[in-house]
Design a protein that fits this description.
The structure holds two protein chains of two kinds.
Chain A (H helix, E strand, L loop, with lengths): L8 E2 L1 E3 L2 E3 L4 E5 L6 E6 L3 H7 L3 H9 L3 H17 L2 E3 L2 E3 L1 H12 L3 H16 L1 H9 L5 H5 L1 E4 L2 E7 L4 E4 L21 E4 L6 H12 L7 E3 L4 H10 L2 E5 L2 H7 L5 E4 L4 E5 L11 H9 L9 E6 L3 H12 L20 H15 L4 E3 H5 L5 E4 L2 E4 L2 E5 L15 E6 L2 H6 L4 E7 L3 H8 L4 E6 L17 H5 E3 L6
Parallel strand pairs in A: 1-5, 10-11, 10-13, 11-12, 13-14, 15-16, 15-22, 16-21, 20-21, 22-23
Antiparallel strand pairs in A: 2-3, 4-5, 6-7, 8-9, 9-24, 17-20, 18-19
Helix pairs in contact in A: 1-9, 3-5, 3-8, 11-12
Chain B lengths: L1 H30 L7 H8 L5 H4 L36 E4 L9 E4 L2 H10 L12 E6 L5 H12 L4 E5 L2 H9 L3 H21 L3 E6 L1 H10 L9 E5 L5 H11 L4 E8 L3 E5 L12 E3 L5 E7 L2 E5 L5 E9 L4 E14 L9 E7 L13
Parallel strand pairs in B: 3-4, 3-5, 5-6, 6-7
Antiparallel strand pairs in B: 1-2, 7-8, 8-9, 9-14, 10-11, 10-12, 12-13, 13-14
Helix pairs in contact in B: 4-5, 7-8
Chain lengths: ~475, ~375
């Protein structure tokens, strides 16, 4: 009888120190239920107790100059992408990471790879990101505490001893949001998603391999109670969650809450008849990354030809098949919990009972919206045509390629938009552009055929991390 | 040598079992005797087609009474639980946590004193010195702890200082996610404890809950404050917390986890061996006054094997309170008897996994 190899164990990182907890959670392969790894769990008390070392941890990180920390990010980019990095008592290659990620989250290897590239790029091009966040601040001013730039004296005061982050399971790409904390001289206190400790852990190991002071990196897989403790123990933090999570924390200025995006494509009146030119932009924005991100398009607003747009999009997206997680052609991510997939689909059917909305993909598909492939459960792309611009489905967003096409004239289009993290506006009409520029519902705005998921890293959105972490103080020196 | 020890343990287990069966007969005879029993059980007996005093010869026979039901203790009249033999005695009423609706109530006369005196005998006099004072930092109010800890301190020659915490209010704050208020309340409670600890250097013993211990240790070094022994209760306490407490929160202090509730009394832990450093917490009920059985959650009459996970079925057998085979909301692994406690124990006690989502525990 051949002994099975021991399960990989992900320890906590307590200011860089690996700690094997007696309290462990087992991560399982969503396809087979087989254990994939065990993950040490932190208690709220431990997180709170360790937070007392926050000032010391930040002092140690701040001893490195910003230039050195930028260099560490560059090196970490390479380690993250290609390195064989520690994983508990063993090591993890790039392929191990992608397979483990797929197994516990349902993110296909092919999509995991593109998320990996995204993280690599942010680390490799961290100066551009920092430039965007600080609007071109000479970072040596952070090293010295104050300095001069463009003949102005500047000084910034840190608002916290660490950046806390309660992280999600949905897509590794979101981890790019907290990465700039390290070159901004701010230690990290992370509580990874329960099914996805892989990415934060690999990033942390890449940073350590690149020379980041260990004290700057704390990783506390834990229950929700531990997540709350991360928020309470750090002066500035971010949390990712659903709308109820956002509502719960949004009034707290110490917490940056990231939730659903409800990102949209708006077709201006001048482009209404040229909708076919933008069909691929629409399909791509809905489908990218398996539709898992808040920057995926979940609604398309057109002034005319709504049904034609929706039908064409449905024909395009219905061709997308569910494939096994290791299939290089995979475009859809699986649901880690099959019950959630079924409940979601039932919810959509329930909402379709309200008049004014029609599932056009259902008419083109022979089977159900929910399918099983390779031991995984998928929800297939769904295109809903909404005649009623206020139908409840127009404000829906789900973790799979789901989009409503809403026909609304220029006036009512903006009036019924609802919160919109990213809007890509296809128009040359200056007066429409001006109205869009004044639309408060839109956070990140793209003019032109830019997919909603395509972010320019020098344009931070959903709160600026630098402004979250630092406050500019009035400063004079004689 | 090993064989001799094993034989000795086997004998002790057999003797403990015989003692339990004798005790069961005595308690059943008491509670079903019209001269001494309580109205509840006397009334219950009228619905039976047998006389429990004749049919129940030992612990295993308690099955014929079925399972004690949770709802019987929720609401009044509580006097139906007072044995006639004790009708003239002062009665105390103690409540359970109240995290699942109307709290369960249990009448008490002397049991809480007896339970804590017996538990006190398991404490080490070196780390819980007789004559030293205590701080009781935790839920008081309608709970047994208030009087029980005071009695424990008193029988050991000490005085108990108290700081109250209302767990039901904390539970509401947690449910409503009112974290700022919760922090403020926690600070209010901890500050009172700090004031008492700093003002009274005769306090060497502490009772508290895991979360309050963590909070207290954020503000004060308890070793330097003179604390030598801590006994700490709460079902959310696991092996990792035990280790965290011994290694980081209060190194060098005698840390004694305890499982107690209003319905049972106090279960003592398997003594910690610093040489082995096994932090698994195993509790042994105060037999024969109370006994745990670990059963199949799908078949409450089937005991699980040693090492297997089962639901805790609790039986309390005192003259004040008879509670046969009550399915607790906890689970754990059935654990073998040891010389000090020659009856079954339960390891890794935790909330029943099927209830985890619906009940808030360990909030204080």
């Amino acid at each position: 009888m051949v002994a099975l190899p021991p399960l990989p164990h992900l320890p906590l990182l307590r200011a860089g120190r690996p700690y094997r907890s007696l309290d462990v959670a087992i991560l399982r392969d969503i396809r087979t239920g087989e254990p994939v790894a065990e993950v040490s769990q932190a208690s709220a008390g431990m997180i709170s107790r360790d937070a007392r070392q926050g000032p010391e941890n930040r002092r140690i990180l701040a001893r490195k100059s910003s230039a050195e920390l930028v260099d560490i990010c560059h090196k970490a980019a390479e380690f993250f992408l290609e390195g064989e990095l520690p994983l508990g008592d063993g090591v993890q290659t790039r392929d191990d990471y992608l397979r483990q990620l797929a197994a516990t989250t349902g993110m296909p290897v092919a999509l995991g790879r593109s998320n990996m590239d995204k993280i690599y790029k942010v680390l490799a091009q961290i100066e551009a990101v920092l430039d965007g966040l600080t609007r071109g601040l000479d970072l040596s001013i952070l090293d010295q505490g104050w300095g001069e730039q463009d003949s102005r004296r500047l000084s910034f005061l840190a608002q916290t001893e660490a950046l806390g982050a309660v992280l999600p399971n949905n897509s590794p790409g979101v981890h790019t949001l907290w990465l700039p904390a390290i070159p901004l001289k701010m230690p990290l206190v992370l509580r990874p998603g329960s099914a996805e400790p892989w990415t934060p852990y690999r990033i942390a190991q890449a940073l350590l391999a690149a020379g980041c002071p260990p004290k700057a990196l704390s990783l506390y897989p834990s229950s929700h109670v531990g997540g709350t403790q991360v928020l309470l123990s750090t002066g500035r933090s971010m949390i990712f969650g659903d709308q109820s999570t956002i509502e719960r924390w949004s009034r707290d200025i110490q917490i940056q809450a990231h939730g659903p995006g409800w990102s949209k494509i708006l077709v201006g009146p001048d482009q209404a008849d040229r909708w076919q030119d933008h069909l691929e932009l629409m399909a791509d924005s809905v489908l990218a990354n398996g539709g898992r991100s808040c920057i995926n398009t979940s609604s398309i607003r057109v002034p005319a030809h709504g049904r034609e747009v929706a039908e064409a999009l449905a024909r395009r997206l219905v061709a997308v098949e569910a494939r096994g997680l290791e299939d290089p052609r995979a475009e859809l991510a699986a649901f880690a919990d099959a019950r959630v997939a079924h409940l979601l689909s039932e919810k959509i059917d329930q909402d379709l009972q309200q008049a004014g909305a029609e599932d056009l993909t259902a008419q083109l598909r022979s089977g159900n919206r929910v399918v099983e492939v390779g031991g995984c459960t998928f929800v297939l792309p769904t295109v809903i045509f909404c005649q009623d611009p206020e139908h409840k489905l127009t404000q829906a967003e789900y973790g799979f390629p789901f989009v409503t096409v809403v026909e609304a004239s220029g006036e009512s289009m903006l009036g019924t938009l609802g919160p919109t993290l990213v809007a890509s506006v296809v128009t040359e009409d200056e007066s429409f552009r001006r109205r869009v520029l004044e639309c408060e519902a839109i956070d990140r705005l793209n003019f032109g055929p830019i997919p909603t998921y395509r972010l320019s890293w020098d344009q931070p959105h959903e709160g600026n991390l630098f402004e979250h972490l630092y406050r500019q103080r009035a400063f004079q020196a004689a | 040598m090993v064989e001799i020890l094993e034989n000795t343990l086997t004998n002790e287990i057999r003797k403990a079992r015989q003692l339990l069966d004798v005790h069961v007969r005595e308690i059943v005879a008491w509670h079903f005797d019209p001269a001494t029993g309580c109205p509840f059980w006397l009334n219950f007996a009228t619905g039976l087609d047998f006389d429990p005093r004749k049919e129940i010869g030992g612990y295993d026979d308690l099955k014929i009474l079925g399972h004690f039901e949770d709802s019987w203790l929720r609401g009044g009249p509580v006097r139906r639980w007072v044995p006639k033999a004790f009708a003239h005695r002062p009665i105390s009423i103690f409540e359970t946590g109240g995290s699942t609706g109307v709290p369960k109530s249990r009448i008490n006369i002397e049991d809480f004193r007896t339970d804590y005196e017996l538990f006190g005998e398991t404490l080490d006099d070196a780390t819980f010195p007789k004559g030293s004072d205590w701080l009781m930092l935790g839920p008081t109010g309608p709970r047994r702890l208030r009087l029980a800890i005071e009695h424990l301190a008193q029988v050991r020659g000490g005085i108990a200082f108290h700081v109250d915490l209302d767990p039901r209010w904390v539970g509401k704050l947690v449910k409503a996610q009112r974290w700022e208020e919760m922090e403020a309340y926690k600070t209010h409670v901890i500050n009172q404890a700090l004031t008492i600890l700093r003002a009274h250097d005769t306090i060497h013993c502490l009772f508290t809950t895991p979360k309050l211990l963590e909070s207290l240790c954020e503000k004060i070094d308890l070793v330097r404050a003179g604390i030598r022994g801590i006994f700490c209760g709460g079902t959310e306490m696991n092996a990792q917390f035990h280790r965290f407490a011994r290694e980081e929160l209060v190194p060098g202090v005698d840390f004694v986890p305890v499982y107690g509730n209003t319905l049972m009394g106090l279960a003592a832990p398997r003594p910690f061996d610093p040489a082995v450093r096994d932090y698994t917490i195993t509790y042994y009920a105060p037999a024969p006054r109370a006994i745990f059985e670990l059963v199949d959650p799908g078949d409450l009459d089937r005991s699980v094997d040693y090492g297997e996970t089962g639901r805790v079925v609790l039986t309390t057998l005192t003259r004040e309170f008879f509670m046969p085979r009550f399915p607790e909301r906890d689970e754990g692994e059935r654990t073998e008897p040891i010389a000090r406690f020659p009856w079954d124990g339960v390891s890794n006690l935790r909330m029943l996994s099927s209830l985890e989502a619906s009940v808030a525990v360990g909030v204080y």
